[in-house]
Every structure is written in structure tokens, then in C-alpha cells.
């Protein structure tokens, strides 16, 4: 395990946090670790095809002002070794093993999109492990329209290639003036890190993760009512990737949950409204 970041403090931002790696059952998992020691660490689980450089630095830095934050790469993605799993179940088991390897007995989880699927599965598989859960731009197993992620995404991925724009410009944000402005600002933030950037996903890993998303869409609904911990659910009101109705559905099924829906915002509602989301998340985590 490489141990950079010897002097972690307020001077460390996500853009200059060292890349680290830890061996979990023979596979190296890439991660970044910042923020104050002590207290319950917050584990970040990201979207389809995301690597360490796809976490919004404004959100990571905002949360790391008060909490130890660990951003991770799934197996087979970015600098992590192994082959990308084709089920959320395997991703959740990997994350539980990673948390154990890092020596944590209790964690908070923030899952965005695919990461929200994984975070729910972890909370159900290892109920004693998770203290608080934040689910953003995500939905439950068998959720409405999750099987359309591929058909919705491919045309906009191609549009991104044709217009020389990152597909997230179209996939994560609304096509209104607000949405376009937020998309540009977000994509600019993702480029703030100049050195030691993570490797992008391979086409094979990208397609394997889509298989996991499709399997989650076909899976029988889980018993979300058995999640007893506090849960914060956030999304935009116009999510074309994981339809917003799924956020409302999860909030209805999870007893101890709060729901935040941002207006004129899409899948990346928390990125568009990071200035509102970060204080909400901090209040939720410290309540």
C-alpha cells in the first residue's frame, strides 16, 4: 500500500490529493483519501464509467472540510486492477472488502447513480457497517426506466463525439440555459487536477458496467423498508438517466429518509447545486 498524504490537513484539496492503492484479496484498488482523521469516514461510490477524476472537486472538498473522505475506483476501472464486475452484488462485496482492508468498522456512504445502487446493496448486505447513507441521482433495484440507461445514453454519447463535448454535458444536465451553464462549470472543475490523473475506463469495463446496470434494472425489488439508518436522497427534477420518480419511490419506501429535488436540474443535480447540496449533506452527516 502506498502511503503518500502524510500531512493531511486543510491545505490538501482533491485536485492535489495523492493517488493510493490497497491490495484487497490480491487485487489492487485505487483510491484517494483526504480530510481530517477521527470520526466516521465517508466513502464515495461513483457513476457508470467513472474514475477518480470524475468526482466533483467542489463536493469532495466541501465534505472533506469536516469529514475524512475516501474516493474509490471499482474493480477493473481506472487504476484498480482486475476485471469490472457485471453485477451490483459483486461491486458491493468488493466495496465491503475494501472498507475492511482500510480498517474501518463503521462508514458513511455517498453513492451517485450506479454508486447509489452499490451503496443500497452495501447497506442491505452489511447493515451494521453503514451509519448514514446518501443516495443521489439513483434508484432502487427494478426501478422505473433504469433498463433504458443504454438506449438513452448511446445517442447522447455519439452526440458528444460529434460536437466534441463530454457526453456528461448532455446526459447529466438539462438543456436549459441554467443546465448548460452548470454543465460547462462542472466539466471545467473535473479538469482542475493537472498531475497524476487517473486512467480512463476501457471500452470493455464501460460495457461490463452497463451489464450490471441492466441486471439491476431487471432485479426483483429489494426490501428498502429494512434500511433503518438515516438516508438522504437527492436528485434533479428532470433526470433522463435514472428517472426522478425513482428518488420519490426510494423516499417513500425508506422510513428514515429525507428527499431533496432540485428544480431545472438533471441526473447531475448535486453538481449543478453543489453550493446547496454540500451544506445539506454536512448537516445530515453531523445530525
From TrEMBL:
Q: Keywords for this entry?
A: Hydrolase
Instruction: Kindly list the GO molecular function terms attached to this UniProt entry.
Output: hydrolase activity
Annotated InterPro entries: AB_hydrolase, AB_hydrolase_1, AB_hydrolase_fold
- Give all residue intervals belonging to the AB hydrolase-1 domain: 41-273
Q: Which domain of life is it from?
A: Bacteria
**Which Gene3D superfamilies does this chain map to?**
alpha/beta hydrolase
Q: What PANTHER family does the database record attribute to this sequence? A: AB HYDROLASE-1 DOMAIN-CONTAINING PROTEIN, HYDROLASE, ALPHA/BETA FOLD FAMILY PROTEIN
Protein's name in the database: Alpha/beta hydrolase
Specify the taxonomic lineage. Bacteria, Pseudomonadati, Pseudomonadota, Betaproteobacteria, Burkholderiales
Amino acid at each position: 500500500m502506498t502511503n503518500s498524504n502524510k500531512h493531511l490537513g486543510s491545505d490538501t484539496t482533491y485536485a492535489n490529493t495523492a493517488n493510493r492503492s490497497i491490495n484487497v484479496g490480491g487485487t489492487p484498488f485505487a483510491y484517494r483519501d483526504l480530510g481530517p482523521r477521527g470520526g466516521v469516514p465517508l466513502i464515495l461510490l461513483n457513476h457508470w464509467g467513472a474514475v477518480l477524476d470524475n468526482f466533483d472537486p467542489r463536493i469532495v472538498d466541501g465534505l472533506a472540510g469536516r469529514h475524512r473522505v475516501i474516493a474509490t475506483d471499482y474493480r477493473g476501472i481506472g487504476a484498480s486492477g482486475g476485471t469490472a464486475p457485471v453485477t451490483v452484488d459483486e461491486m458491493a462485496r468488493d466495496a465491503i472488502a475494501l472498507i475492511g482492508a482500510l480498517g474501518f468498522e463503521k462508514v458513511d456512504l455517498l453513492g451517485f447513480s450506479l454508486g447509489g445502487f452499490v451503496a443500497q446493496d452495501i447497506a442491505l448486505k452489511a447493515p451494521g457497517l453503514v451509519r448514514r447513507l446518501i443516495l443521489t441521482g439513483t434508484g432502487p433495484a427494478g426501478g422505473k426506466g433504469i433498463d433504458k440507461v443504454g438506449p438513452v445514453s448511446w445517442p447522447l454519447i455519439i452526440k458528444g463525439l460529434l460536437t466534441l463535448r463530454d457526453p456528461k454535458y448532455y446526459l447529466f444536465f438539462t438543456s436549459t440555459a441554467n443546465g448548460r451553464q452548470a454543465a460547462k462549470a462542472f466539466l471545467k472543475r473535473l479538469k482542475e487536477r493537472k498531475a497524476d490523473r487517473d486512467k480512463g475506463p476501457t471500452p470493455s469495463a464501460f460495457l461490463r458496467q452497463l451489464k450490471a446496470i441492466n441486471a439491476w434494472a431487471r432485479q426483483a425489488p429489494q426490501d428498502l423498508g429494512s434500511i433503518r439508518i438515516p438516508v438522504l436522497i437527492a436528485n434533479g427534477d428532470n433526470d433522463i438517466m435514472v428517472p426522478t420518480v425513482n428518488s420519490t419511490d426510494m423516499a417513500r419506501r425508506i422510513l428514515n429518509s429525507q428527499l431533496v429535488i432540485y428544480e431545472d436540474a438533471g441526473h447531475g443535480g448535486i453538481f449543478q447545486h453543489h453550493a446547496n447540496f454540500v451544506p445539506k449533506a454536512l448537516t445530515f452527516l453531523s445530525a
